[in-house]
Amino acid sequence: MQAFLDSLIRGWGHDPQTWVWTQLIYVAFMGLFSFAVINFAAVTAGIFSWAERRVAGRMQSRVGPNRAGPGGFYQWIADAVKLLTKEDLVPTEADQFLFRIAPYFMMVGFACVFVALPFSHRLVIAEMNVGVFYIIAVTALIVVGIIMSGWSSNSKWSLFGAIRSAAQIISYEIPAGMALMIPVLLSGTLSTQGIIRAQGPWPWEWYIFHDPASFAAFFIYFISALAEGNRTPFDLPEAESELVSGYNTEYSGMRFSYFFLVEWGNMWVMSALATTMFLGGWQVPFLPVTDAADKIAMLSGGWTVLAELASIAIFTFKTLFFVFIVMWLRWTLPRIRVDQMMNMCWKYLVPVSFAAVLFVAGWMLVIHAVPALDWIMRIVLTAGGAITLVMFWLRTLQNIKDTGDKFDFTSNW
Questions:
Q1: pLDDT surpasses 80 at 246
Q2: Can you give the chain as a three-state secondary structure string?
Q3: Which of 20, 142, 187, 231 is the most buried (most CB within 10 A)?
Q4: Residue 125: what are its φ and ψ, rounded to 5°?
Q5: How far from 322 is each of 215, 240, 266, 279, CA to CA, in Å?
Q6: Are 315 and 304 in contact (CB under 8 A)?
Q7: Do 184 and 197 have their domain in common?
Q8: What CA–CA distance (Å, rounded) separates 81 from 336?
Q9: Would 383 be classed as within a structural domain?
């Protein structure tokens, strides 16, 4: 956003390098952007809490929230008001200071990710040349918040849940980080915007269809992100039958809701990062943006605005598609055992992710010598992905046809 602020200052007739108020403008707009990011994250998480309950009701042949507003849409606002007004209880034997600040560590680690996530061609808070490294680093604060909340509660169940969650998140960060290194290798940059620009707007230009290892890396990242976000089938830290909600058992009121706000908001983060790293991000068909040519920047007038809105819409659509997949998985798969979860990580995902990185490094040398092989592999993988999607869609329609699906738009929604 610095380039935007510099152009704004120049529009006011001043040189940003010499104007005495430049730093003050930077600080003021930094506060404004932070306020916007926090509110976007909170509102998005709230809406997802409503959407997930509606999706769950739909999949389980029940209604779900349908009283507060049209389709029950205002339910998340009602929940926020209720939690804000509930009593904030702190156990007598708990560490008062650490107990109170633990949820905010999670909120900070969650909200800081949005700083480096690109929403469109120009809409990114900070276009850092170490964006991927920054995202991996700040998410570690979530682990700190979980450990702090479990230990400060002075409860064995909270501590068990915190330790289990820390082991889970730290373990799955390894395959997730290695999977994200593959787009970094292919693009030659850690910048999230740079990785998007290195891809194209068409599916065969996306990194998910670049080679077999990058195709596998997408699923490794997606599975690992589910585990890091405590989403089913990896919601072991909150296994109610074993831990009475785990590390947040002793919390109440708004502090209790922060843990779930981070979980719901993390659905956007993991889906947006998957879109950025493997699915071409905000790239607009027929208007590719590369290091050599920026066709959106070449436009002028209203066309520039339309292209920018199109890039936002494309990025949002791709992200929300995977958000729905995450919701779908929660209400489809059963929770696995903790030993199964750790075995899958250390015995399968970690070695496969390391092998995938080595394969991609070798593959880049091969296609440099034989460029035609690159396009052949892209076309084969893209065609395979398209056929799989079509078969899945046909199977879904057949299931609906066989079992019946009556839908009352009037009373249910």
A1: no
A2: CHHHHHHHHHHCCCCCCCCCCHHHHHHHHHHHHHHHHHHHHHHHHHHHHHHHHHHHHHHCCCCCCCCCCHHHCCHHHHHHHHHHHCCCCCCCCCCHHHHHHHHHHHHHHHHHHHHCCCCCCCCCCCCCCCHHHHHHHHCHHHHHHHHHHHHHCCCHHHHHHHHHHHHHHHHHHHHHHHHHHHHHHHHCCCCHHHHHHHCCCCHHHCHHHCCHHHHHHHHHHHHHHHHHCCCCCCCHHHCHHHHCCHHHCCCCHHHHHHHHHHHHHHHHHHHHHHHHHHCCCCCECCECECCCCEHHHHCCCHHHHHHHHHHHHHHHHHHHHHHHHHHHHHCCCCCCCHHHHHHHHHHHHHHHHHHHHHHHHHHHHHHHHCHHHHHHHHHHHHHHHHHHHHHHHHHHHHHHHHHCCCCCCCCCC
A3: 142
A4: -65, -50
A5: 16, 26, 12, 11
A6: no
A7: yes
A8: 34
A9: yes
Tokens of 387: 């056929």
- 67 and 211 in a single domain? The answer is no
Number of domains present in the structure of the chain: 2
Q: What is the span of the domain harbouring residue 177?
A: 88-290+303-391
Q: Is position 397 within any domain? A: no
**Is the separation of the CB atoms in 318 and 279 below 8 Å?**
yes
pTM: 0.89
- Tokens in use for 53? 């309950």
- Go through the chain and tell me how many residues it has: 413
Q: Which amino acid is at 6?
A: D
CB 263 within 8 A of CB 41: no
Q: How confident is the model at residue 317, as a pLDDT?
A: 93
